[in-house]
Amino acid sequence: MLFLFYIKYGKPQLQIWSLQKLVAVKVYAVFLAENFTNVSLKGFKGLSRTEVEFTLAYLPCMNPNDWISLFLILSKYEQKYEPMIAHLKRMLICYIHEVAKMDVEVAADLKKKTVVNTELSHPEIRRGNVPGWTPR
Out of the domains of life, which is the source (predicted)? Predict the structure, then answer.
């Protein structure tokens, strides 16, 4: 279901990927899209503060650095933006998990031993306060 949400309401990566860092965000509207809550946001990127508009449905095709920036910006107002923060936490955890799996596969192909540090940097993630995710 979530995959279909991203396909239906997202945009192609070519239209939204950017190397400019997301430096500020304003939340404009929260609306229901299918069975998921979507959010309309306006962001500002880089030193020139180029204005960009996006929704949560664009996340899979955005630069992962933007996910982290968005998470850190919204975390300053955790009570107000809790559902969006939970969505971003799930995205980040899944992304990190997939990158780690790929690293393990590459190490196995190169016949190298892998060392996995399970200590996560954000205190909320470390405490396990991520809806829909349980540590293994």
Answer: Eukaryota
